[in-house]
């Protein structure tokens, strides 16, 4: 009876080694053929000796069965070579006639070398090699395994899986008690191990030097001993496998864990102080086990968990303070990818809340004809409140008793130009007190005459309406001039230069001076024109010649609320790359960029990238994730054969392709043509129609727009529409906190944040807006920036009275 069971066990082991390898064919079917060839050719040639020991193991739930024999080294090499060829063919062509032939030859070779009992006919093995359930499983894998992830080093694991492997090294079978369960360990100096998961679709291949452990292994393995080294092979099933290897490739591409259902929800307000735990749900698209850590700031508790399935987990917290913002960060890893997200919540207030001050706290350029201050009071318990307001220097005060939630006003007067004021609001509900301090700085009244306030000269700037295709509002006009009058009569730093909408008693226009050189009178500025007409010329006025004034420019208001970032790229790249908007999306240069990379561009200075390691990275922020978007920039390629990739891009990580993607950006194709790209939440990348070829050392003004409500994407070159596409109504793909990159990109990095493709180019005036600009706006921008002298005329100097 025991002999019969042993025979059955051996039969089962042979079936396992072939059927499991067939199952693995689905897992590795789409792997490159070169990979299969490399696996075979990596096996060292063994110098023949007379005989060698071959051990055949049949692994079952009560431990290994072993059959050992001495055969010639030549036959042992044939056995191993036959196994490698059969393994490769099963991976590439599981149902071919040649594969069936290799199966029969391998069975015959085992029988010839006394590795299976002679009493069992080979035909009995052949009838068990292709059972219906195995073929169904193979077809299932073949229909789902279409792509692989990028090769990486590290560790990978699987729960309830099939496995096969071979290589040069050692394999150790052990028995664990109580109730024996097999633990198999292998150490490959150069090997290949393929794992296919049963609970979820997927698997991985580990190649090169590796160390693996299988718990609850059921299958077959063999070892061939040579003086030069041992060769091992195995195939079967396991409850759990973990492998550390030089190279790991996932099938299909592994997706990062997903964090959902946080409690409190992100940015939740008025969270009770009695909250005792944080909770969240984690899931892995492949069903991998995950490890997580949670930290809080300010510290109210932390926690972690290892090898957890998908589900909801909690972290105890304590010591919450009222009206405090807490950040809690969750890091979840499936050993291949880590998802890192930070969430926020604010606790409820027990004291009155003072908010919405007008003027806003820290506001500059407040007109001196301001007549009142205002603020909002709120008590979440609905208590009646008392308040007092004080100012310094004194411009007024006020108070109120038994008031409830609402907005309150304090009359002020006598404000002086260019003065900093503080005002203090004290509020109480008779139990809890709140004190808030706000500041603002005045400049001039809403309307004033510069000639009556110290300025001595002005010049009229007239915009030719023929350059304006349609009426535009709040358009930032680019002003560039070299003016000998400014050189002689303006302050050396240009602080006295300002722009008005009319002569005499008029309104100050919002403006930003990008560059001024007092030695030459060179001025580069941006002036926000409230109304730009396509029917008649638009005039505005530049004043200068006031030695006693500080600068009145206001970049934050020059670029209205639609502008999410404006990088003039006129800074020394060894320091901060400054964003002129209120969002402060400042960037950092990499690659050792210095002042030598600051060169003359289209709109003043710009930055030059060497194509070796230079790039600029801007940290992710909510303002860089608009639903509707316009991306505009000047681009000059400086090499004959530039690489393919994104040279200006807001990156995202594409879980479906297991690589980086382009939420929106400018792309150079392999044919050296430019296009605009964006990725939607359907995980499909769209390119705007058009294929604009580049010429080296030529400036191009590029604009990309996308409108969520219509799904329309447009790509412009030099103000002309080169491509448009209706991509259906959807939203852009903002799934990960990835940076905005200029001068470089990530190409197929499988989730890595590192930049690995660089462009030899110059970039100038990169802008992001949260609205899709129209063709008239885009054409006007190009006309203005490309040829400012042809866009407007500057009249003669007019002295003050």
What ranges have pLDDT less than 50 throughout 5 or more consecutive residues?
A: 1-49, 131-148, 174-181, 655-659
Gyration radius (Cα, Å) is 36 Å
**Major sheet description:** 8 strands, antiparallel
Give me the count of strands.
50
Mean pLDDT, as a whole number? 82
**Count of spatially separate domains:** 5
Helix share, percent: 10-25%
What is the number of helical segments per DSSP (H or I, 4+ residues)? 10
How far apart the termini lie comes to 122 Å
Alpha-beta content class: mainly beta
Query: Which geometry do the CA atoms define?
Result: elongated
Relative strand content: over 45%
Explain the overall architecture:
With 801 residues, the chain is mainly beta. It folds into five domains: 2-251, no CATH class; 258-347, Immunoglobulin-like (Sandwich); 369-442, Immunoglobulin-like, CATH 2.60.40.2550; 454-558 and 788-799, no CATH class; 563-770, Jelly Rolls (Sandwich), CATH 2.60.120.200. 14% of the residues lie in helices and 47% in strands. Strands 32, 34, 35, 37, 43, 44, 45 and 49 form an eight-stranded antiparallel beta sheet that branches. Strand 38 (645-654) and strand 39 (659-668) form a beta hairpin. Helix 1 (2-28) crosses helix 3, helix 2 (33-41) packs antiparallel against helix 3 and helix 3 packs antiparallel against helix 4 (97-112). It starts with a helix and ends with a strand. Mean pLDDT is 82; it is low at 1-49, 131-148, 174-181 and 655-659.
């Amino acid at each position: 009876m025991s002999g019969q069971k042993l025979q059955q066990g051996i039969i089962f082991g042979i079936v396992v080694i072939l059927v499991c390898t067939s199952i693995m064919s689905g897992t590795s079917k789409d792997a490159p053929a070169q990979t299969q060839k490399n696996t075979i050719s990596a096996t060292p040639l063994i110098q023949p000796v007379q005989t060698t020991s071959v051990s055949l193991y049949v692994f079952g739930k009560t431990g290994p069965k072993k059959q050992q024999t001495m055969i010639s080294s030549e036959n042992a090499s044939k056995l191993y070579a036959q196994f490698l060829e059969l393994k490769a063919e099963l991976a590439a062509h599981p149902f071919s006639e040649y594969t069936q032939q290799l199966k029969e030859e391998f069975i015959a070779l085992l029988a010839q070398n006394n590795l299976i009992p002679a009493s069992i006919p080979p035909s009995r093995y052949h009838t068990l090699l292709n059972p219906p359930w195995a073929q169904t499983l193979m077809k299932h894998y073949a229909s789902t395994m279409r792509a692989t992830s990028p090769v990486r080093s590290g560790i990978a694991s699987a729960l309830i899986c099939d496995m096969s492997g071979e290589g040069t090294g050692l394999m150790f079978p052990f028995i664990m008690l109580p109730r024996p369960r097999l633990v198999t360990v292998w150490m490959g100096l150069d090997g290949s191990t393929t794992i296919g998961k049963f609970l979820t679709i997927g698997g991985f291949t580990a190649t090169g030097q590796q160390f693996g452990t299988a718990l609850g292994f059921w299958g077959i393995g063999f070892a061939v001993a040579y003086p030069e080294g041992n060769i091992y092979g195995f195939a079967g099933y396991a409850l759990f496998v973990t492998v550390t290897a030089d190279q790991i490739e996932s099938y299909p591409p592994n997706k990062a864990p997903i964090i959902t259902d946080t409690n409190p929800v992100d940015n939740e307000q008025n969270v009770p102080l009695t909250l005792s735990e944080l909770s969240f749900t984690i899931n892995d698209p492949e069903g991998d086990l995950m490890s997580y850590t949670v930290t809080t700031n300010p510290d109210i508790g932390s926690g972690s968990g290892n090898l957890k399935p998908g589900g909801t987990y909690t972290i105890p917290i304590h010591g919450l303070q009222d009206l405090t913002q807490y950040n809690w960060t969750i890091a979840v890893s499936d050993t291949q990818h880590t998802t890192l997200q930070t969430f926020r919540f604010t606790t409820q207030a027990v004291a009155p809340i003072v908010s919405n001050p007008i003027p806003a706290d820290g506001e500059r350029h407040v007109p001196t004809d301001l007549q009142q201050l205002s603020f909002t009071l709120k008590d979440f318990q609905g208590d009646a409140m008392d308040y007092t307001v004080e100012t310094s220097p004194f411009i007024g005060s006020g108070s109120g008793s038994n008031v409830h939630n609402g907005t309150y006003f304090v009359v002020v007067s006598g404000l002086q130009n260019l003065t900093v004021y503080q005002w203090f609001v004290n509020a109480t509900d008779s139990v809890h007190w709140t004190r808030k301090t706000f500041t603002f700085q005045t400049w001039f009244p809403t309307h004033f005459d510069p000639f009556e306030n110290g300025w001595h000269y002005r010049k009229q700037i007239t915009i030719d309406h023929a350059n304006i295709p349609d009426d535009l509002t709040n358009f930032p006009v680019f002003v560039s001039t070299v003016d000998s009058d400014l050189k002689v009569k303006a302050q050396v730093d240009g602080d006295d230069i300002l722009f008005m909408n009319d002569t005499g008693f008029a309104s100050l226009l919002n403006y930003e001076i990008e560059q001024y050189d007092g030695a030459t009178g060179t001025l580069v500025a941006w002036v926000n024109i409230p109304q730009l007409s396509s029917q008649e010329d638009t005039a505005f006025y530049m004043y200068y010649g006031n030695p006693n004034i500080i600068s009145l420019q206001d970049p934050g208001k020059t670029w209205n609320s639609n502008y999410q970032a404006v990088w003039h790229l006129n800074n020394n790249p060894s320091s901060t790359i400054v964003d002129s908007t209120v969002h402060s999306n400042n960037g950092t240069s990499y690659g050792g960029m210095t002042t030598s990379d600051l060169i003359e561009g289209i709109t003043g200075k710009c930055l030059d990238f060497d194509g070796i390691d230079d790039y600029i990275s801007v940290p992710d922020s909510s303002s860089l994730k608009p639903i509707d978007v316009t991306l505009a920039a000047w681009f000059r390629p400086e090499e004959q054969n530039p690489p393919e990739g994104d040279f200006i891009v807001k990156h995202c990580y594409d879980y479906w392709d297991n690589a980086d993607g382009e939420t929106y950006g400018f792309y150079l194709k392999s044919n050296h043509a430019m296009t605009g790209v964006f990725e939607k939440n359907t995980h499909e990348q769209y390119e705007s129609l058009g294929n604009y070829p580049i010429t080296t050392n030529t400036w191009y003004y590029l604009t990309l727009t996308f409108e969520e409500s219509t799904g329309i994407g447009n790509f412009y070159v030099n103000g002309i529409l080169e491509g448009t596409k209706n991509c259906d109504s959807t939203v852009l793909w903002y799934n990960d906190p990835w940076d905005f990159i200029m001068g470089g990109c990530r190409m197929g990095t499988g989730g890595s944040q590192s930049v690995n493709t660089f462009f030899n180019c110059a970039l100038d005036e990169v802008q992001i807006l949260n609205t899709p600009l129209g063709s008239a706006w885009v054409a006007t921008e190009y006309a203005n920036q490309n040829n400012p002298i042809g866009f407007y005329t500057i009249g003669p100097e007019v002295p003050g009275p």
